[in-house]
């Protein structure tokens, strides 16, 4: 299951210059939260299941989280 909530959060602070955004595959994710630890913008928090939730108001689309995820549960997708 891939979940991206584009309506709840997003865009207020980074404006419209972000090119890519992270998309988490929650079935693949093991809830290790390494992505949250590595995110330079502290844009990732744990949801009620302990899995990462990206606050797109702060995410800069750098891709560090996707690179650091040990099970490749995050992919960077082109911003719409
Ligand atoms: S690093 Fe990958 S496996 Fe770990 S919490 Fe983040 S998305 Fe899930
Ligand atoms: S793309 Fe960069 S800024 Fe956005 S959540 Fe991942 S590590 Fe954080």
Number of strands: 5
The percent of residues in helical segments reads 10-25%
Read across the widest sheet, the strand sequence of neighbours is: 1-2-5
Tally of separate helices: 2
Strand content: 15-25%
Please write out the topology.
Elements: E1 2-3, E2 20-25, H1 34-38, E3 44-46, E4 52-54, H2 64-68, E5 74-78
Antiparallel strand pairs: 1-2, 2-5, 3-4
Plain-language structure description:
With 80 residues, the protein is α+β, with helices and mostly antiparallel strands. The mean pLDDT is 88. The strands form two sheets. Strands 1-2-5 form a three-stranded antiparallel sheet. It has a single domain (2-78), classed as Alpha-Beta Plaits. The chain contains two helices and five strands. The structure holds iron/sulfur cluster (SF4) (2 copies). The site of one iron/sulfur cluster has 13 residues, from helix 1.
Short characterization:
By secondary structure, the chain is of the alpha+beta class.
Task: Spell out the key features of this protein.
globular; Alpha-Beta Plaits; single chain; alpha+beta; 3-stranded antiparallel beta sheet; 2 helices; two-stranded antiparallel ribbon; binds iron/sulfur cluster
